[in-house]
Amino acid sequence: MTRFPPPPDGTHPPLGFAGYRSTTLRAPSQPPVVLAHRLTEVTGPLLGADRVGPTDHDLTSQHAGEPIGQRIVVSGRVLDSDGRPVPDTLVEIWQANAAGRYAHARDNWPAPLDPNFTGGGRVMTDSSGTYSFTTIRPGAYPWDNHHNAWRPAHIHFSLFGTSFTQRLVTQMYFPDDPLFGQDPIFNSVPDAAARQRMVSRFDLAATRAEWALAFTWDIVLRGREQTPFEEPHDD
Amino acid sequence: MTDRLGLTPSQTVGPFLSLGLPWPDGADVVDDDTPDAIRIGGIVFDGAGEPVFDAVVETWQADPSGGFDHPDSPTGTTFRGFGRCPTDGDGHWEVRTLKPGPVDGQAPHVDVSVFARGLLDRVVTRIYFPDEADANAADPVLATVPAERRATLVAVDTGLGDLRFDIRLQGEGETVFFTV
What are the Intradiol ring-cleavage dioxygenases domain coordinates in residue numbering (chain A) (predicted)? Predict the structure, then answer.
């Protein structure tokens, strides 16, 4: 059966991370049991385009007027770690508005809500694994994790891939954010190189003239173990 | 030889996942008029015994014949197999589904992911069924779980045909979580 090798150490955050206060009562205290992959784990929901509504790809078009803020295009490819594109897979996002406020009843930070921005989006990747959203650049916002704590601007991403083992929820950040250094969620990823893989890049080529700035971000899900059918003999 | 690409790390869903993740029919793995539909649900608790009101629980399972709607499944099906339910203000979640069949020599089970603020990665568990004592006793995954903790993975029959599966993230009675 197809197997998915474990992620390299340092790629994913530990569940218990002292700097992020909400982990204190929520991170399990017992070590996890290793579940060898069987059919339930190597399969997974293959959700279709019926999950995506007509304005879900464009978060600036979901209300009567345009939202306030810097219009941006966020796009990239969903790949597995062997470099294979993941076509026809659902990508879901949610984010704060340009002022750093979420359109959510429990977000009580006194930055303005935007009646023209909800902040939720969905798309399917195309046959080359490419996704694209139009949205506005989210703002940073304060939170009560520690004194003077601010989240770097980010967009939440949810991905399924093609198996239960590939399920991933993460956050996309923007390049050169001065708030990275003090953010425990960003820094919960142990490996510095892995941390940088959460940061999008400004992409001048993808920028739409007189319309929108563009940020490119590829997402890499776990790959399947390749069956060695031949020994390398490149002598 | 191709270099493997570095994986994208996991990050928490944060407190406002309900802006992006819920679907109107997320908790309905099957429609409410489906014969033999069952409800499985419970409360997500934190280490202080308080309900977790900002989590989302996702389920993935076979149909009653042990098939998945997936090309790697030897038995095909049109059964969606996937459920998604955010917890409410009382920490409660529930999906309407069908009892899965045995899969691959395993007892009937449902794979579960829990996402929440304070969870930097999902936690994964499994639901087993209380009317499958013999199959559970022979299940290769349950066999890897310390015997005194196996009960955390078996749903409780509430007597109304519904199954209760509470998820305790931490502390006394902590649910067994798996690395996948």
Answer: 74-102
Residues of B in contact with A41 (CB under 8 A): 111, 180
Number of domains making up chain A: 1
- 3-state class of A195 per DSSP? helix
CATH of residue A207: 2.60.130.10
| B95 near A CB under 8 A | no
The amino acid present at A38, given as its one-letter code, is R
Range of the domain at A202: 50-221
Task: Give a yes or no: residue A21 inside a domain.
Answer: no
**In chain B, where the domains are located:** 17-168
Catalytic center residues of A: 102, 141, 151, 154, 156
- What gap in Å lies between CA A165 and CA B153, rounded to an integer? 19
Nearest CA in chain A to B81: A45
- C-alpha B39/C-alpha B22 separation (Å) is 18
CATH label, B17-168, candidates 3.10.110.10, 2.60.130.10, 3.40.1180.10, 3.90.580.10: 2.60.130.10
pLDDT tens string A26-45: 999 999 999 999 999 999 99
* CB A155, CB A177: distance < 8 Å: no
**Which chain B residues contact residue A29 at CB under 8 A?**
47, 170-171, 174
Upper half-sphere CA count for residue B87 (Cβ side, 13 Å): 25
A38 within a domain of the structure (yes/no):
no
CB pairs under 8 A between A and B: 232
Tell me: the pLDDT tens digits for B30-73?
999 999 999 999 999 999 999 999 999 999 999 999 999 999 99
Contacts of A11 in chain B (CB under 8 A): 6-7, 9
Q: What are phi and psi of A35, to 5 degrees?
A: -105, 110
